[in-house]
């Protein structure tokens, strides 16, 4: 991917209070930044939530997003996950037409190959759960299209920096964008 169109995975630790998601997403949208993916959930500390989002752009975009996030009082810490060695995952639930017989067997085989699982079985459809990197999830969707996808839902990206022996392993955005 070119420098001008780079994917940045950011993790923001925020206070777990009503309105934080709306405030952050509204602020980014009002300044013309598009959020490519977003996932929010409570952390190991119930007082904090983690927002993982993906923005696409050059280093200037990353810098501007960082500066704007730092201004928000409810933001505790921002980490540029994509600048480090990290693990990312998407989750997919997909309902696909699968009448009893050969098609259902083929779908079951593909689910196994993609290390997914069938989580619901109906008379004419099955619901599949797949998690993994974005390209794996997308590849599975493409393999299911010929069978007839009835419904599909995906989470936003979640990501964590791998453990490191380096004492300064976290590269925070906080402070990096100070004027």
What does this structure look like?
The protein is an alpha+beta fold. The protein folds into two domains: 3-85, ACT domain (Alpha-Beta Plaits); 87-158, ACT-like. Chain A, domain 2 (Alpha-Beta Plaits). The chain has four helices and nine strands. Strands 5, 6, 7, 8 and 9 form a five-stranded antiparallel beta sheet that branches. The chain has a four-stranded antiparallel beta sheet with strand order 2-3-1-4. A hairpin with a 3-residue loop joins strand 6 and strand 7. Pathway: Amino-acid biosynthesis; L-valine biosynthesis; L-valine from pyruvate: step 1/4; Amino-acid biosynthesis; L-isoleucine biosynthesis; L-isoleucine from 2-oxobutanoate: step 1/4. Catalyzes the conversion of 2 pyruvate molecules into acetolactate in the first common step of the biosynthetic pathway of the branched-amino acids such as leucine, isoleucine, and valine. Keywords: Amino-acid biosynthesis, Branched-chain amino acid biosynthesis, Transferase. InterPro entries: Acetalactate_synth_ssu, Acetolactate_synth/TF_NikR_C, Acetolactate_synth_ssu_C, ACT-like_dom_sf, ACT_dom, AHAS_ACT, AHAS_small-like_ACT.
- Helix fraction, binned, reads 25-40%
What count of helical segments does DSSP give? 4
- Write the element-wise H/E pattern from the N-terminal end onward: EHEEHEEHEEHEE
Tell me the CATH topology of the largest domain.
Alpha-Beta Plaits
Using the coordinates above, name the CATH class of the largest domain: Alpha Beta
CATH-assigned homologous superfamily of the largest domain: ACT domain
Nearest-integer average pLDDT: 88
- Gyration radius, rounded: 19 Å
Strand proportion, as a percent range, falls in 35-45%
**Strand tally, please?**
9
**Shape, per Cα inertia axes:** elongated
Q: Which regions contain 5 or more consecutive residues with pLDDT less than 50?
A: 174-179
- Major beta-sheet overview: 5 strands, antiparallel
By secondary-structure content and strand pairing, the structural class works out as alpha+beta
Number of domains: 2
Termini separation (Å)? Answer: 28 Å
CATH arch. level architecture of the largest domain:
2-Layer Sandwich
GO biological process, one term: L-valine biosynthetic process
Family: Belongs to the acetolactate synthase small subunit family.
Keywords: Amino-acid biosynthesis, Branched-chain amino acid biosynthesis, Transferase
GO molecular function: acetolactate synthase activity; acetolactate synthase regulator activity
